């Protein structure tokens, strides 16, 4: 915990990516929608943003991709700015699920209350809350992300959103099941449309590292705007640690030891509290649905600079 | 993260216990065996041991109680000293279970490989490994705990162990189920007998804080003996964070933000890496099976001295 | 098996209803939609139709009610007239579910293939098949039921259908889950609309006994029209025996010993092969969701005339 | 239902076996214990015993084999002679399980009450009841079977029983799980030892058809001894219909339409009430664990003589 930033450098990141590149071919690009299946598997990117605002990067760090479930952290953050703590946590839990990210078994047994906001069911509930509160929830999210990053051209990949909507059956089942338990307020298909747009946010690794820097910085942006309270930032980090990597969260904590959230697009964002955020991208996924080379890169980084929170 | 130890003091702990004492009566003392059910609910204790060896304590911090599942951390540590990483983790996983601590559902679906070493099934597997490696596994554990604490009179509560053995059916079912999948080597009843003895270890909060100090101190004892490697210490901390509090691990991370392991005797041990360990004891449990007042005391401590890892 | 029809009479049925009337008050009228919840619990009716066309009846046997899941037998019969055996049974199974009638757990584990055509999921698949084959599936069902009974004024209770559609979330979840596995062809909401209309069919006990007489008569109507083959009639009877009474099918076979299908409206239709059909109606349900007094009346009938198939 | 016995003949059975012999090779001999795995797959046998005592047979009808789960019907019958109805059915249910024969999932959810007496858990409960009531339960069963068949040399295959006991883990898990819920009275291992002996009963098809003739004959033996009441015989037939063929009971009722009970040794016993019993044997099993060629032979028989109960 002592060697803060001393070894962070572009060279370090380049070196790490070079080591993990050999793993490409061992994972599997997400193929449930064509728009994701067509992304070439050779992409590899890494970017760091320190709480002082310094940026380090390597590989395709300026190429945008579909951030997918990483957007679940943004949805939760936005909900935290508009709802009281008890309003959120009576509708979604805080526990790891112990199951694949889109299973309905648990949701049925637990009467429509999703285990946590980082599985699909939980993120759909959060989206339902945003849909209920905002007149233009898609526009509101864009503004939020643009304000977090300072990048005004970040937007949705409408082709991805459309493709997701066409393959929405599983998530529609999840949403209707929650509705059947009374844990859903808006129109199911309208909420899914918003949800898939959030998933389709197109960002690059540098933008991701900047975007989530508030989680490393006690809820503050680099420009000192306080987005959420320091306690809320810690709460989100805790949720990422226990629930952020689907059913591979325990393994990720064991190997890498910092809070993170992954997406099926192959991106992962991680937070080293009071130090920096780091984003990686490599489209091939491991069996838990997390970027295979991305996890390896983060493990190397954690080892090199000794920044596990444990 | 900056204010290390400055505010740790006996007074602080006394003050915290005073605040949480009001909660006594809201939880439920474990009653599945008489020996636990008879423990008076009014006990309340807290002790801290810093990585420099300084001790702070309050309440019944020198009264011993049944540490129960806290012993699972000791079992894993001992196994790590005698087995290679791959030998352990092919027989037990690293993921939170998302289910009560003694459910068989998941164990059957996942073909006899328990989710993690901190649920009963996982700890029984670890005990099976110790039983296989040591000729006198009960004696070996006693020696280990005595060496960690320097307290040579720590021992098993044989009445508790006997009572557990008489109510062993659920754990026998778990063990036989794993055996049916080929994930069990020794005699089931012999392993259970050892396992229940581990659970019956009788220690007080000061001893617990001392005992687990190696987890805060990169695997080293206060006398500088290296028990496990720094990486192994971090791995155990990570497992405690994601799996240490049964199906309340996410909530505990969210509210308190440090790795911990609880027992149904009402004890909890927590680790603030590179800083200190803290043990609490209050027999009444919350719905997840963790000490109700104990969790509250740890939350207050975490808030007062700002030592969440997040 | 020897005493065929000798004891069937209006007096017998009247006597049976008198005995079971005492049970009214011990069950619970279905209350998930207002239109069903408002049906008075005191209704009690029974009607028999022999394969020779003789009718016996008692109580409110000419009062219509919502037949609900009894319509699942009609849907399957209609599908059998338009699809080959293999086309049907690759999309729905033939096994009892061992679970409540609208659970999603099993459906997810078994990859969107419902256990049998008499649970909701299975009947929705059958409706999807009818929706795909018929241009006006609601009209087609009406014509079918009218031809089976000779009653040209049988129709849907549109208020019930509308109310069901407003509480469709659980069934929508079921349908979307099957769609996510590729086992669904038409539009989900359109199929549900048809499905709920089938459920809302309004018939009385005499009409029900007449309507299903083809199942007692080797697939033939009383006017000798062959609706389905003798083998198909036996197959439907077999499915009713093993799956017709939700998770109370085993108990029903044990106590009463003839094939039957119940609905949450409190109706039950039973078949004594080569002898007669019998319909009962009493709105209060037992814990398995079958008419409480209806089951009791059928048990008495089975005892009195010795017509268990076993 | 009219053509009773007219077509039953040795020639018919020989003809049927000839037709189904072609299926040998498509199933799989049970291999969980060596004693069963070593049985040659070419065995094929069929025997009928009418309620008048006439015997027809074909193939290896006089070669004995391990009857395995067919013994569950004998255990239940014996229990019915010594326990009141309510004493039995408070400890075991009457519903199909919808799951493989030795799953623990349901048993845990349903608090240690097995679904029915024909899955392992249920038969183990029945054995626990017999163990509790009889001083020599193994000897008592032998006497019972010998009295039912008149064959005084029927006995256990001790090699099979021993082999089962050595692979008892799964069933031990089941028994201990029930014990943990308070639904078990005797010593687990002693009960399992008795249970495996029952499973190891060695009988041939002619003996099986004779043995179970009381189920076709209203509870009476051919010598007119009343073993159980006519109602109890019907109850057992009903349970065989809904639960007798594991998770293939629905398919069996659909295709064959008579009550039956199978064993993993490849035997099946079926009952045509008031007419005859029929036993088949062919060691290869289908996916549900029922004799593949045996089912085919029974289907042919059912078609040829038109004796489905439906």
Overall SS class of chain A? alpha+beta
The mean pLDDT of chain A is 95
Question: What order do the strands of the largest sheet of chain A run in, or round the barrel if closed?
Answer: 3-2-9-8-7
What count of helical segments of chain A does DSSP give? 15
Instruction: Compute the separation of the termini of chain A in Å.
Output: 9 Å
Major pleated sheet of chain A: 5 strands, antiparallel
% residues in beta strands of chain A: 5-15%
Give the quaternary arrangement of the chains.
Answer: homotetramer
Count up the domains of chain A.
2
CATH architecture of the largest domain in chain A: 3-Layer(aba) Sandwich
* Rg of chain A (C-alpha, Å): 18 Å
Helicity of chain A, as a percent range: 40-55%
Within CATH, the superfamily of the largest domain in chain A carries the name DD-peptidase/beta-lactamase superfamily
CATH class categorisation of the largest domain in chain A: Alpha Beta
């Amino acid at each position: 915990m002592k060697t803060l930033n001393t070894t962070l450098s572009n060279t370090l990141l380049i070196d790490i990516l070079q080591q993990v590149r050999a793993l490409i071919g061992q994972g599997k690009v997400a193929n449930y929608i064509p728009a994701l299946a067509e992304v070439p598997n050779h992409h590899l990117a890494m970017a760091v943003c320190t709480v002082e605002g310094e940026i380090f990067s390597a590989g395709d760090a300026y190429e945008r991709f579909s951030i997918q479930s990483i957007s679940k952290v943004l949805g939760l953050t936005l909900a935290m700015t508009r709802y009281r703590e008890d309003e959120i946590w009576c509708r979604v839990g805080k526990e790891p699920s112990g199951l694949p990210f889109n299973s309905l078994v648990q949701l049925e047994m637990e009467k429509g209350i999703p285990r946590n906001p980082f599985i699909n069911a939980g993120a759909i509930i959060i989206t339902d809350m945003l849909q209920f509160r905002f007149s233009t929830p898609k526009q509101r999210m864009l503004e939020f992300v643009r304000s977090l990053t300072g990048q005004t051209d970040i937007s949705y990949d409408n082709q991805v959103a459309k493709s997701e909507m066409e393959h929405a059956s599983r998530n529609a089942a999840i949403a209707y099941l929650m509705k059947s338990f009374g844990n859903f307020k808006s129109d199911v298909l309208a909420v899914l449309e918003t949800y898939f747009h959030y998933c389709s946010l197109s960002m690059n690794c540098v933008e991701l590292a900047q975007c989530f820097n508030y989680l490393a910085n006690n809820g503050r942006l680099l420009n000192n705007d306080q987005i959420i309270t320091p306690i809320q930032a810690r709460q989100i980090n805790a949720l990422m640690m226990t629930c952020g990597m689907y059913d591979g969260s325990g393994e990720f904590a064991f190997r890498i030891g910092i809070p993170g959230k992954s997406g099926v697009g192959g991106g992962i964002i991680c937070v080293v509290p009071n130090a920096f955020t780091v984003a990686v991208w490599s489209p091939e996924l491991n069996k838990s649905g997390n970027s295979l080379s991305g996890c390896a890169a983060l493990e190397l980084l954690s080892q090199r600079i000794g920044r596990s929170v444990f």
